[in-house]
């Protein structure tokens, strides 16, 4: 009798718990888990996203990737884009956060100014950047010429200039977001540590940053770098607006290539296989990051 | 207990919001069809709305609703989503070059079926060439909505300033004229005004403008039976070399913004004196009071040639009543009533002979020599093949043309590479 009522209570509690998590689980299943599963299924098929029937072709999509030079270039471009824009964004965000954590004049205005690009749409910002980077009459080349440098054909030369332009847009756009997260991290570091350290002569300046701020900020840094990396791997809009993947594919990143295959060339199955590559890449690099930054001395 | 009931009720309510989002149809006797289009200019949209209202008034049993899908190069993804979601659009306005791809996928109702069973419709009134690009394996699938082609727009003031009195008729004359129009105004070693602009990028725009040069040089895009690429001929190499030379040898042309060769900002600002574009830009150019422009035939080398473009109506498989209503609408669009009003208001070219020959349109042509040039040029029109493989071939060719324009490969290498990829697509 007694045991039964306990069981009943546990059952009731569990049911309530399940009811509470049901909406979240339902939505995650519908919008994340199911699409990933469907994508995996598609990657073994040939499909134009119109016909009723999908042709099963086994591993052919994956085999085709081995000799697809455009895909290899896209992977390379994605990596180049990531290893340049992520450290630049995070470095700048951390620098600004430390600076703006101090009581300086006009702090609120500067913070707002730096955060504004985050809420600007990539399309609008991209259009303005295209205009600023124009070879013949863009403001950036005018400035370069003012200080005696040669104008650069940013968006239409065969080297790395187009990628540089997109990296600059991305850094400009994302720095504010990560700065805010760093600021939150900084504010959670107790002031007492700095006071204690200043007795030892290490409370301020470079030493304070290196021995107190940096180690205690590690959880934030880990979180921020994982998020930044995933952001960057998924980048699409800035390339679509600024370069369309050109010139000659030098800014064609994985997601852009996927889009082209799926919605321009009607190769939905192949695009799905490319998406699987992206998934694996992001997963591997995220795990690596946890290993590298998430060392055992820090507790989360 | 109360809380549990509330929780249960909320969960059920949540489920219901997911389950019941399908809107119920309107009254039974009126068939409602949605017309997807990508007509962007405000002026053109107003005309469209007016003509649709006239159609609805004349057909009390049909209600056509226009819905914009945004830019046309974004449309395919949206159509794919709608079709695979089991909710296809009724009628879609799209380039005829997609006919093969959609017909092959089996999602279209072939126009041929309606034409065969509808005595009220005279298919011979529509230009034969337009039906050709609307067909897939010998069967008419889509119906012409409006036509256009490409010509050279030129800035009359800049021509006068350079002392040019006659528009060029051949490639050689074109180069001569372009040289005179390329000027460094302030003598700082940087050219401020180019004679011409070469479209760059890998998109369809680059390919379809380049095709006119291929045809002008006497070349063909595919072999006659359509089984193999033919653009890597001597004529093809000559055509691509001409573009490269305009930029690097004669130095009379700059590049357009990547994949945006159709933008007219540079032309309107006088930064280029000549540009390849089509008649759909006329309302915009006419709205610019500072611009004094004219139009001439694409210059010939071996022969005159332009590329016939335009849009078609694609009728998707839905249910019998909606498909029939969609056909009624397509028929109305091809009639002189719609064509004359639409053409006069927008600058697009009519698709039917009765519309072109009507006194109203003839009078309009007399008053608008620019449009008359486009109509005359239809006689030298060539068209892209509407085969399912066209998109993939065009993408391959676009990438290779871009490489040649950046001088990473020679025109011959570029075209041979593209032809090899095209052959792979065709023999798949």
Report on this model:
The complex is a heterodimer of chains A (300) and B (428). With 300 residues, chain A is mainly α. Chain A has 2 domains: 2-42; 68-293, MetI-like (MetI-like fold), CATH 1.10.3720. In chain A, 72% of the residues lie in helices and 1% in strands. Chain A is built from 13 helices and 2 strands, in the order αββαααααααααααα. Chain A has helices at residues 2-42, 60-66, 69-101, 107-115, 122-132, 139-146, 161-187, 191-199, 205-216, 218-233, 237-242, 254-264, 268-293; strands at 45-46, 55-56. In chain A, strands 1-2 form a two-stranded antiparallel sheet. In chain A, helix 3 runs antiparallel to helix 10 (218-233), helix 10 packs antiparallel against helix 13 and helix 12 (254-264) runs antiparallel to helix 13. Chain A is flat. In chain B, the strands form 5 sheets. Chain B has a 5-stranded mixed beta sheet with strand order 2-1-3-13-6. Chain B has helices at residues 2-19, 42-58, 75-84, 99-105, 111-117, 128-133, 156-161, 171-181, 204-216, 234-248, 265-268, 282-286, 320-334, 336-346, 353-357, 359-367, 369-377, 390-405, 411-426; strands at residues 31-37, 62-68, 91-94, 135-136, 139-140, 143-148, 151-155, 196-198, 253-255, 274-277, 293-296, 306-307, 309-315, 381-382. Chain B has 19 helices and 14 strands. In chain B, helix 9 (204-216) packs across helix 10 and helix 18 (390-405) runs antiparallel to helix 19. Chain B folds into 2 domains: 31-148 and 309-382, 3-Layer(aba) Sandwich (D-Maltodextrin-Binding Protein, domain 2), CATH 3.40.190; 151-307 and 389-426, 3-Layer(aba) Sandwich (D-Maltodextrin-Binding Protein, domain 2), CATH 3.40.190. In chain B, strand 4 and strand 5 form a beta hairpin. With 428 residues, chain B is of the alpha/beta class. The longest helix of chain B is centred in the N-terminal third of the chain and has 18 residues, at 2-19. The interface between A and B is medium-sized, with 29 and 37 residues.
